[in-house]
Structures are given as C-alpha cells and as structure tokens.
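Sharing a chain and its predicted structure for anyone who wants a worked example. Both blocks are below, sequence first, tokens second.
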Amino acid sequence: MVANVLKRKISLRIKRKKRIRAKISGTETCPRISIFRSNRTVYAQAIDDVKGVTLAASDGRKIGAKANKAGAEALAKDLAGKLAAKKISEGLFDRNGYLYHGVIAAFADGLRNNGIKL
C-alpha cells in the first residue's frame, strides 16, 4: 500500500476511535469491551474505566484464533466465559475505530450469542 494511503487510513481510524471513546465509559457492572484486530490475530478486553483496570482479557494467539470471522467468534466465546465467571452479563462494545462489519461484527454477534448483552 502506498505510504500516503496507509497514513490516511490509520489517521481516519484514530479519528473514529476518539469519537467513539468520547461517548462511552465502562463501569464494574457494565464494562467497556474493546477489540483490537491485527492482520494475524484478534485481542479483546473488558475494561472498568472508573477504576482504570482490566476485568477480563482474551488473546487470540493463546486460543489459536486467527483474524477471521471464525476466530472472532471463538474469541468472543472465550471472553464471554471469563465475564460469566465474574458474574458480568452486559457491556458496552468499543469497536476501537474499526468499521462494524466482518470480524468486528462477528465478534459482537459471538458475545451476544454467548449471553453478553451489548
């Protein structure tokens, strides 16, 4: 990808990320569920912004999930299990500036299918 195009793509994602992040904030009972997608894998964590701590996290590398829809659903199942163990049943979805389709949408649907209300 040409350097100018890549730089613009990243700057637009950061703008979207700041705009989304200004509107949502997680608590202990309703954490912010943030996702990060790289070319190889997907990571997710549930964050309590009031205290500034991570309540639960899932790493796609540790469960063998790739950065595709099936991997995102597996990651969502893993994170939902960790949240259920802490008796958390709802959260705010932070798409982290990514467009809501593909892997990101599959992750959100996977959370909903495993009992987490978004």
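Comments welcome. The two ends are 35 Å apart (CA to CA).
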